[in-house]
Design a protein that fits this description.
By secondary structure, this protein is of the alpha/beta class. The chain is built from 14 helices and 12 strands. The strands form 2 sheets. Strands 3-2-1-4-5-6-7 form a 7-stranded parallel β-sheet. β6, α6 and β7 form a beta-alpha-beta unit. α1 packs across α7, α1 crosses α14 and α4 runs parallel beside α5. The protein is globular. Bound molecules: uridine-5'-diphosphate. The site of uridine-5'-diphosphate (UDP) has 18 residues, from α1, α11 and α12.
Amino acid sequence: MRRRSRVMHVVGARPNFVKLSPVMRALSAHPLKQLLVHTGQHYDHEMSEIFFQQLKLPQPDFHLRVGPGTPTEQTARIMIALEKTIRNAQPDLVIVYGDVTSSLAAALVCSKNSIRLAHVEAGLRSNDRTMPEEINRLLIDRVADILFAPIEEARKNLIREGVHRGQIHVVGNVAIDTLVQHLHEIPSPDIGLPDRYMLVTLHRPSNADNNSFLKTFLQALDELSDQMAIVFPVHPRIRERIEKLRHREVLSKIKFTGPLGYLQFLALEKNAHVVLTDSGGVQAETTFLRVPCIILRNRTEVSSGKRVDANSVVGQTVPQLKKAVQRILAGDWKMPSVPKFWDGEAATRIADTITKQV
Ligand code: UDP
């Protein structure tokens, strides 16, 4: 008797868990065996376990527990451990998500072991090669066999880079599937905020590892907090730096929290007056939720230039950031349009394609 096809998901970081959830669910309607690998790239309860609980994800079949380290150390450790896992489990297809270190490490292992690879969220490009995530995206898409693009522009990017048309499937955004699925169970924000507040997240190395930017940024936030309450769930990557700066500067008006669980964060995001972020996922979610979003990067891969209001991409320029906030407060703000297929069904399209190919 022919053995059931085996599909292995490799995840390791917060945004992966959000994207994994609808794909596992959609694939479970098909006669496949699914295997889940957690690399351990993110290991704090608030960055990992809480997502498994809230999104009702199954416990991983394999936990590589690579733990902390530089991106190179983590990549190397994941590759060594994952190669053993893959040789034992013999999947017919591996699926990776987004642009994190774990996804690149898994893509390289698949390539070296002739295992077919699918990439969910393929083709996004910021065209900024100083971003480690951009290099991850380029390399993963180079070796992937099946490329699931979240927007039409991503397809165009891939074709421009020489990917065969037949390998690319524009399916929509799986993180929006998760959002749509959980919208009805979002709790009300319960951390003592007024109706009008700004939500801030920051974790890209170019921002998070830049002390002088962080200092001016926090000072700007402190000034803005005279006009609007501010809540800032702090990513572990910048926890220490923020702590140090908090002791030196007076930042008493900003409400700092640790990283929040998915549902708690969504509650804050949905009800925010403005979101300030360098996160790709948060940009996409605010587009869907119709919440004004200011992007703390020079370039963004999430939407095409046409969709993003150029004024919302403020990089590290504090005067531009303040100007953008004033425009939002004055109601002078154009929301980007919601791309095609961001409808809660992206994972179903992915599952339909995968079952035809394994
Ligand atoms: N998120 C969360 N808690 C937080 C901050 C973000 O649950 O405190 C969620 C957010 O809703 C989105 C995802 O994490 O679904 C984005 O992850 P992140 O910003 O770490 O990565 P990126 O999207 O930039 O790759």
